[in-house]
């Protein structure tokens, strides 16, 4: 793909994602306002100069603006995000508005204002549930079973006592249903003691491990530091692919061969095969089973000094890939799909909240926070994978739409959760103000609200700076 085409795909994907989640967020505010009888003066999809606009029968101006990066809704009486009128200002405003005051946001009961405010994040959560439920209903869920097939020598998992065949049930408080869940539960827990429940020979036992910090390179050349304990999924010792013109191909390996032993040492999993290939230099005598008969193959792998990753030694030294057997597919119905959607949203919320809590307590680094640049980068990467893996334009377009919508579900959860933080200028900050008003029976003074706004603005700008720094570090890692 050309540089121009690559850039266009990234920009399109970013705009698509941001537009969906922000417009739905604002629609949540809008529909809650309509339910409570509040007049919406303007609903804008995007910012900047107006491209198209129209007025509906309720008097709301709907506009499509030049910068498609979200949107906003403006209710009657809105003056700005910094504060709401105090008691004196409200009295003057009511006098000025006359009968129109009944349709003004500020003169609605506290519970209605709180409902309108909370409706934005709620809409984001509902959108995410709908996306995840639809994906589960249409495509089902296919995961690698959380059964250990590889324990890296000298790793935290070996020190903790993990064994091949252990089924991981829970990491900390997170239930585990697939191997990807394990990675997600550990990625930000480097150097943090974690309790892990495993099922071994029908008995549930608890092991304690301290994930180590590992620089992990993705397929785009970027590097992220993640927490890992040195385990891999259970792969049968079956050759799934043989790279053309590799040393494995030259030795005579074929897809479907089952590895029996390496230099006389029995092999039971592909992880063990990888380990043995990564430990021995020089010629190897490898016994395989093919078509019901055993066959001895003499292989001359690439020297150990010439490879980068020993945990991928079979691929890098011989050009041999594995065939995953322990894969489980789950189908969903119209009744169970929404439950799965809600479960995914709840898991995302709790894991994110847990991470934020660890940042506050100093147990985790804020290096995993991402800003607009990071979102755009991730959107572009997802788009490129969808397009590059397709065999036709139609398939590529379908893959792109499917994957972007799925990512929009996670982004929607994130937007909803962030907006509920008790920080002035965010929805959660306004909810805190309403809670004060409900207890004190009067609004917080405009001076106090403005002060809270300034503090909140500094806090949010600080988070954005940290997130942008993380994004730039990742991008520079791709370049250099």
UniProtKB/TrEMBL annotation:
It is found in: Membrane. GO terms for cellular component: membrane. SMART domains: PDZ (SM00228). Keywords: Hydrolase, Membrane, Metal-binding, Metalloprotease, Protease, Transmembrane, Transmembrane helix, Zinc. Its EC number is 3.4.24.-. PANTHER family: MEMBRANE METALLOPROTEASE ARASP2, CHLOROPLASTIC-RELATED (PTHR42837:SF2), REGULATOR OF SIGMA-E PROTEASE RSEP (PTHR42837). This is Zinc metalloprotease. It comes from Maricaulis maris.
